[in-house]
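Discrete fold record:
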Amino acid sequence: MSARSAEELERALRELGVRCSVEAYDALAVAVLEPGERRLEADNVRRRAIELARTHGFSHLAVELREPGHAPTNRASLSRD
């Protein structure tokens, strides 16, 4: 297992074809999908994304969905402290 790296995980997910950015909260990686991104709906892609998260030092991978045309807000489910 490598050291946790959100940047490297984001790069690996993009190589997989998943358009996202990655935020890290300790051992949790959050893939923030670009509006309209749907590749993680495919079982094989989702399984590979989870494997990539583990390979890059994370224990869990969550997905944040954004509505097309809606700007991100600061009403996050996770504390940003």
Summary: The helical segments are 6-15, 43-55. The first helix runs from residue 6 to 15. DSSP finds two helices and three strands in the chain.
